[in-house]
Specification:
It comes from Photorhabdus heterorhabditis. By secondary structure, this protein is α/β, with parallel strands linked by helices. Helices cover 29% and strands 20% of the residues.
Length: 327
């Protein structure tokens, strides 16, 4: 029996649709709780090439919500472990792996070679970086996030508004899955929805997954869905993320991390400051300077930039160091 017989029988798929799926290249950024189910179902569906990007290794704490892995794979790079599992699941699928983070220096090349991009990193910095590159290159972006018992997934860019159009500001929330917790089935549901929206995008289903947002609250078992086709793009990009290679001698570089958090600053000339230093308007950069604000995730840098923007209209760039470290 043909491997894809049960999906080819759908009139939305058929042999023509299966050919589209088999010829597609999908970039999946993040092989964790969201990426785990998304990769498995896209592989099962027969997506021709899966490109997996993740810098982490498999840990015991991953296993409750990332069932693509098992205890025998603990300690391996996630991309290598995922490749082992996916090639056994479907040998017809080519799996390309990059054990690195997504950052401004590699994002454009990775995105340019993909038909659809999945944001499974659950990182604000990565979401905005991917949105900016996908908007520039006209690539569809399926982005999702989960925290606690709640999550969302949406189809952005290409024929739809960008992530910035829907989320012009980073939510002022420092909670993470490590601090707030998360249940495996919640990320699995959202990750599977990412896979479904990816297939719908490849098959050009109507209504399009692009411009569609689905939210889930598994605390109350409630779901909602809405379209954002008419969301207005920001008139200008509020703040963009850069990498260390983009720094220049003229930049005013500020590291918002404490010495206990980061003994070595982002740059030898970087100043050590806190977000509070930008609240009272006393710190004013020189005219024509570009201010570069660095922190671990990008959240403190965004908040400091927002405070600085209240009284200074010069150029500001952000650095999320967790998205630049190759591990």
């Amino acid at each position: 029996m043909n491997r894809y017989d049960r999906q080819q029988v759908l009139q939305q798929v058929g042999k023509c649709g299966q050919t589209k799926i088999s010829n597609a290249k999908v970039l999946v950024v993040g092989a964790g709780g969201l990426g785990s189910p998304a990769l498995q179902y896209l592989c099962g569906a027969g997506v021709g090439t899966l490109v997996v990007v993740d810098p982490d290794v498999v840990e015991m704490t991953n296993l409750h919500r990332q069932p693509i892995y098992n205890e025998s794979l603990v300690g391996l790079a996630k991309v290598d472990a995922a490749k082992i599992v996916l090639e056994k699941l479907n040998p017809e699928v080519e799996v390309l792996t990059y054990a690195t983070t997504l950052h401004p220096d590699n994002s454009r090349l990775l995105v340019s070679n993909a038909d659809v991009v999945l944001d499974c990193a659950d990182s604000y910095a990565v979401s905005y970086m991917l949105s900016d590159v996908c908007s520039l290159l006209g690539k569809p972006l399926i982005s999702a996030s989960v925290l606690g018992l709640k999550g969302y997934v949406g189809g952005f860019c290409s024929s739809a508004p960008s992530f910035r159009a829907v989320f012009p500001e980073i939510p002022n929330n420092t909670a993470t899955c490590a601090t707030m917790g998360v249940l495996g089935p919640v990320v699995a549901m959202i990750g599977v929805l990412q896979a479904q929206m990816t297939l719908g995008t490849l098959l050009h289903l109507s209504p399009s997954p692009l411009g569609q947002m689905v939210t889930a609250d598994l605390d109350t078992y409630s779901f909602s869905s809405f379209r954002f086709d008419n969301a207005e793009e920001p008139k200008s990009v509020t703040f963009h993320f850069i990498s260390t290679s983009s720094l220049t001698s003229k930049d005013l570089i500020i590291d918002l991390r404490g010495e206990n958090e980061a003994p070595n600053p982002v740059h030898p000339d970087a100043l050590r400051m806190s977000v509070d230093a930008f609240c009272d308007g006393n710190f004013i950069p020189e005219s024509g300077q570009r201010v570069v604000l660095a922190c671990r995730t990008g959240l403190r840098a965004w908040n400091a930039a927002r405070n600085l923007r209240n009284y200074w209209d010069g150029e500001v760039a952000l650095m999320a160091m967790a998205s630049l470290e190759v591990r």
